[in-house]
Amino acid sequence: MIPALLSVLLLPLGSGDSGAGPAVSPLRPVNTYSIVARDPETGQFGVAVQSHWFSVGTVVAWAEAGVGAVATQSLVEVSYGPLALDMLRAGKTASQALVALTAADTAPEVRQVAIVDAQGNVATRTGTGCIPEAGHHTGAGYSVQANLMEQNTVWDAMATAYESAQGDLAERMLVALEAAQKEKGDIRGQQSACILVVAGESSGRPWEDRIVDLRVEDNPEPLRELRRLLDLQRAYRHMNAGDLAIEKGDMAGARREYGAAEALAPGNLEMTYWHAVALANAGEVEASLPLFRTVFRADPHWAVLTPRLAAVHILTASPQDLDRILQGAEAR
Fold first, then answer.
1. What does pTM read for this prediction?
2. What structural domains and CATH numbers belong to the chain?
3. Spatial separation of the C-alpha atoms in residues 234 and 322, rounded to whole Å
4. Is the Cβ–Cβ distance between 194 and 214 less than 8 Å?
């Protein structure tokens, strides 16, 4: 249990002494391990985190396209995240933002925070009041940090794993989290995890700049579930690419992308169904029939849906082709 005395220390940032007694902020013992990073090739920013704490991603992980990324944890002051991004957006470096945050905090020693800015500069601080084992390791464009670990090998193992990992930024950050767990991780166990990745440049459309935003709120094996979700997101990206290929008349490219999606998510009826719809809309009805049949046999609700799509022209097959498609449902 966190000593009750510590709750008295958790004052809001910059609260100062009003003379009316301190306002105590909520105790949030988000003791955890995390990574913040900037990918030098794509410019993407990311945060990944795991903790024995419900919905850790809503508290720890902060990132903005073209600006930077922040992880705020330990006896967490959540406002470190948005305030740090505000300062980075205004032109401050990661180090300048960190100095300003801790200077305004009445209890900086119970915080752990890491910041990476748009130039890849990194600033990290592990307060002396963080619960052992606690520490951090910084490298080129990234920082890994942890507290309340079972052993003090966690952050160095994360750094080694991140630096040697292959793949995109999300994959490499997840590999770092998995390395932490192999070192026994949080002494209390596992509960929730998050990966957040944003674009290196802002498009002015935040919904497009958020490349990965995956959260596991409560799960006995959150990293395993996070990896499943990341693979599933990749599969849906291939689906989207297949749709775009069909729009351009590139059937070979569409088949390649749909095949990649279905390989990543075997048995996913949603993917198989929309693959079939896309083929039918492109005039490839014959190729779509086995896919429709597979879906209808697994779940007849899709056969009920199909004529509804045709009624609103989302499925553009002719009445004759629609009959052929629906014969797959009758053949169950």
1. 0.86
2. 24-220 (3.60.20.10), 234-330 (1.25.40.10)
3. 31
4. yes
